[in-house]
Amino acid sequence: VGSGSAVSLSRQVQGTGGSSAVSKCSAAARGYIQDRFLRLLAGRRRRRAPLIHRGYYIRARAIDHCVQDFLLKTQSLPRTQILSLGAGFDSLYFRLKDMGLLHHTVVYEVDFPNVACQKATLIKGMKELSALVGDTGGDGLGAITFSGDDYKLLGVDLSELSELERTLEEAGLNNEIPTLFIAEVVLTYMENTRSDALIQWAAEHFPQACFLVYEQVHPEDPFGHIMQQHFRQLNTALHSLAQYPDCEAQQRRFLGKGWTECSVMDMNEFFTCCIPEDEQRRVQTLEPFDEYEEWHLKCSHYFVLAASKGMEPSWTPLSPIRCHAGPVGMAGSVPAAVCASLSGIPGLRRYGHHSVLIKPNMILTTGGFGEEDGQHCRVRNFHLLSKHAGHWEAVCVTQNIPDKRWGERLYHTVSCLSDTLALVVGGRTSPSSAGLGMLWLKFPEACDASGPGDIAVELVNLQPAAEAAALRWRHSTTEITFKGEQYLFVYGGRSALEPVLGDWHFLHASELSYTVIAVEGPVPESRHSHSACSWEGGVLIAGGLGAAEQPLGSVFLLRELEHGFQWQTIETHPPLVPRYSHTAHVHEGKLLLVGGVWFHASSVPGVTVIYLMTGLCLNYVINVEHLEWPLMLHNHSSVFLPNEKELLVIGGGGNCFSFGTHLNPEPVLLSLGSILTSY
């Protein structure tokens, strides 16, 4: 690149550092991290969303975990040093100094010259900072913008290795003592040849060294595509990803460049394995939160890596025990294609909605968050799809919906009780609000699929007496029969007060009254975002997110007995990979699980088939080669079309951390013929 382009690019990369400092400052203000220095260094303040707070919490926690482990393991040594590459406006030195952890350690920070100069000016102008560091170096010399006894701030472009080496030597960096290198979302902005050279240089020139990296991973799945697109739009492309797309490739990178030990884990694994359970619970209760899918997807796309050489004892801050299993075996693939007749129809770009077959060839979609009138918002409008002469068409729905009653809800259920009547149960507006209770949807008797035309939907409020069990969301409502009578089985979910529910309620369909029916057997673990299907008069419950925000892999059958029901565990082999936010359908003794979120970052969930008579469990990847956009299969809805052996997937997606909102733009058909006839 020409010098003008290089300057422009360095400005863009510097911008990511400033944005990161603001986000960390916001997380500290909400109690996620304890850091009184961030507000002094971040400059501007801005309140970020809870999802962003969690993301920056796990980042700060991973770095602190490894840095403090290094200081602990080397505390008996006379001298050590830390070299933070691309440090930006980070507060690491000030926190460590304030905690009394730098008795024999010098911290060197390196960043672009103008960033280093800005930071040096900030430190000198604030007593809280300058008092800690004790400025003994005046205004600094050349590239050394600030020089204290145990803190040196250097303005150097990291990609210029010879200049970096010369400036570090001038600042007093000692190759012969144990050194920790830190690169927190830095190396990936450099060309791979330059970042590789830096990694190798550190290994070759420092006999006792550790290298700590935090950055992105998994570029090729749907979330990864959105992530890459975001950074390309900022003109800060992530160079590492093409050559080092996963944790194993990063590990091989370091081992191949002179480092003798290297452990790596993604942030789901780090959160589960390296953060004590009481601290996990503290963080999970700091703010109202309901973006679990996006949180876990963000965590699966960032890793922390700790490499070392020559350290006695060896430096292994990341547990070598894998908390999550390896790659998921796939039995084959399922083709996906855009439903051509629905291409371009507005109103179906949404998530957290519900779609239901209200009669043969008619699908009603309600609620969720998505696009309406050109804006992203909670969706008020209903959407009806009608299949006519082999083609799906959108039908105009007129609706009598006072805003108070509908509430623009997400994560509700809709159960059809007759050709003219459906029951809406639960849902929410914001996660800090109470659930929304129940209401009827009434359709005209003349409503059929013979041709497009206006269809009116009327909403009718229900008496408060029927509300108690319905003030929840991310639950399931399933039709069951008991002694010939029709009931709705409301199970699990969460509420504004309870992050996960494990109770259930039998709702008599015709009277809409709760009935006590005896249930025996092992009670399933509390869960939400699970799937539930009617089967042989009972209910099949699969997966979900448990109390510790961990995906569950259990499958239960609530089976009718003479005097009540019984919970039975369905053993699957191989065991079902834990997941949540999927959809499910039953067809001829097979349970189909569609999409969802799991912790196996090497692939995304496709379609899983469980043979209910034998427990055989087969996973199929979804072939998306005919789609021109990333297919996100969480927070979606799906309708099984048994005659065609197809699944119509409607909506899906969510907020991709700070990378923007992705909504699947069009309904997709999954062809299941080959997998439903096999075995």
Automatic annotation (TrEMBL):
Pathway: tRNA modification; wybutosine-tRNA(Phe) biosynthesis. Probable S-adenosyl-L-methionine-dependent methyltransferase that acts as a component of the wybutosine biosynthesis pathway. Wybutosine is a hyper modified guanosine with a tricyclic base found at the 3'-position adjacent to the anticodon of eukaryotic phenylalanine tRNA. May methylate the carboxyl group of leucine residues to form alpha-leucine ester residues. One of its GO terms (molecular function) is tRNA methyltransferase activity. One of its GO terms (biological process) is tRNA methylation. SUPFAM superfamilies: Kelch motif, S-adenosyl-L-methionine-dependent methyltransferases. Belongs to the methyltransferase superfamily. LCMT family. The keyword Phosphoprotein does not apply. The keyword Methyltransferase applies. Its EC number is 2.1.1.290, 2.3.1.231. It comes from the Eukaryota. It catalyses: 7-[(3S)-3-amino-3-carboxypropyl]wyosine(37) in tRNA(Phe) + S-adenosyl-L-methionine = 7-[(3S)-(3-amino-3-methoxycarbonyl)propyl]wyosine(37) in tRNA(Phe) + S-adenosyl-L-homocysteine; 7-[(3S)-(3-amino-3-methoxycarbonyl)propyl]wyosine(37) in tRNA(Phe) + S-adenosyl-L-methionine + CO2 = wybutosine(37) in tRNA(Phe) + S-adenosyl-L-homocysteine + 2 H(+). This is tRNA wybutosine-synthesizing protein 4. InterPro entries: Kelch-typ_b-propeller, Ppm1/Ppm2/Tcmp, SAM-dependent_MTases_sf. Keywords: Methyltransferase, S-adenosyl-L-methionine, Transferase, tRNA processing. It holds the Pfam family LCM. Interacts with RNF144B/IBRDC2.
